[in-house]
Amino acid sequence: MPAPMHEVVIKGCEERFDLVKLWLADDEDALLAERGPEVLGVATGGQRKLDGALMDRLPKLQIIANFGVGYDSVDVTAATERGIVVTNTPGVLDNEVADTAMALLLMSVRELNRAERYLRAGRWPAEGAYPLTASTVEGRKLGVLGLGRIGETIAQRAELFGMTVGYHNRSQKDVPYRYYPTLLEMAADVDTLMIVVPGGAATHHLVDAEVLRALGPDGVVVNVGRGTVVDEQALIAALRDGTIRSAGLDVFEDEPRVPQELIDLENTVLFPHVGSASKPTRRRMGELVVANLETWFETGSARTPVN
Ligand code: A2R
Questions:
Q1: Backbone dihedral region of 246: left (phi > 0), alpha (psi from -120 to 50 degrees) or beta?
Q2: Which of 77, 119, 212, 293 has the highest CB neighbour count under 10 A?
């Protein structure tokens, strides 16, 4: 284990395996040289990049079990080349992340974060009712970038809120929602963009100045996927000059650093990457990490491999 993880994973690994806690080493290099050749499995939470160089220090490595559905901190190509299976924790966090996404959407459209700040600042008795919001949720057109497990869970919720749903993936799915073959086409047709694609090179800065312009002045962007999917500087400019209305963000390009410009803007709702961050959901994610390791070493196949 390169860095500390959820107690369920630490306990689960300690009970079943001989756990090497790399972060406790005074001299990491020396510990890797000493114990690296024995290591058969890695459990990781994404705090540390797992690249080919680190994998080469672990020549018997068979499995990398990632805590989280996004595994962009693991070089999966390097793992596959070395015959190492990589697993993630899909499914168990869909509802939690979808709830977070809807919270960001509702707060962004109805300015609920600003309204709450208004009350806390004592402005209600002093200045009267909070101004009516220009926009409402019902009737909005939602475009989901990445209609996968989480994206579909969000789509179901959005329908209940009276929104119409469309999506853009690389390939069309058998779902009752309109498919847009390009992101730009979708952005031009909808007013609310929900980002739920994974990170990595293929999705880097997919949402750029052109997409934001296409979304238009009533446009709302919500991102619960990865910060790297959005050109953050282009987003800041679009929020500042009214190219779009507002943004609700749970993920950022350089976490935990959030640009001061985003913090200073009134038309942003900003969460510190808490999409799946409840005790019950994180526990289920931790149990799935351990289950992947356990079944791999018992049966030779993992529960939820990605390669
Ligand atoms: O493109 P497809 O047909 O493979 O559909 C996937 C879509 N997707 C993309 N869409 C457009 N351009 C791309 N370059 C691209 N890459 C992937 O994103 C698929 O429908 C969706 C991802 O869905 P799942 O694999 O089911 O992931 P899940 O569990 O919904 O989680 C999504 C992401 C995680 O990777 C974390 O970054 C975050 O949400 O928590």
A1: beta
A2: 293
- Evaluate whether 224 touches 93 at the Cβ level (below 8 Å): no
Give dist(CA 170, CA 260) in Å, integer. 34
CATH number at residue 284: 3.40.50.720
The answer to whether residue 192 sits within a structural domain is yes
Q: Is 196 in the pocket of ligand 1 (CB under 6 A)?
A: yes
Please state, as a whole number, how many other Cβ atoms lie within 10 Å of the Cβ of residue 81.
11
Tokens 């994404």 — which residue? 46
* Residue 49, pLDDT above cutoff 90: yes
Beta 192-195 vs 220-223: how paired, if at all?
A: parallel
- The DSSP secondary-structure symbol of 207 reads B
Tell me, yes or no, if 123 is annotated catalytic. Answer: no
The string of pLDDT tens digits covering residues 102-133 is 999 999 999 999 999 999 999 999 999 999 99
Residues 75, 31 share a domain: yes
197 C-beta closer than 6 A to ligand 1? yes
Contact 105, 192 (CB under 8 A): yes
Give the angle subtended at the CA of 122 by the CAs of 120 and 128, to the nearest 5°: 115
